[in-house]
Amino acid sequence: MANTQMAVVTVGQLGDSPVQIACPKCHQTVLSKVEYSAGLLTYLFCGGLFFCGFVLGCCLIPFCVDRLRDAKHTCPTCKTVLGVYKRL
Question: What backbone torsions phi and psi does residue 53 show, to the nearest 5 degrees?
Fold first, then answer.
């Protein structure tokens, strides 16, 4: 069964890189593990490149660039989701 607990963090704490944060489940101060996934900004960039004429696969480049994707922070110890940084 998936764990859906999420910590309440301020927007300034989370970004696209790992942060040191206290896990609400295991009560340890950890460096978060970051997993990237496609978000709204990724799809907007893909659509923009497609309409500009980059149809030979170049429009898929935003799916490979972490700076354009959302970042999900998890606890490396107990795998609890600590928060999600959304680009848009």
Answer: 105, 5
Q: Name the residue ranges covered by the structural domains of the chain.
A: 20-85
CA distances from 33 to 6, 14, 70, 80 (A): 14, 12, 13, 10
Instruction: Please tell me whether residue 18 adopts helix, strand or coil conformation.
Output: coil
Amino acid at 52: C
Q: Measured between alpha carbons, how far is 71 from 86 in angstroms, rounded to an integer?
A: 7
Digit-coded pLDDT (tens) for 61-73 = 999 999 999 999 9
The two counts, helices (H) then strands (E), for the chain are 1, 5
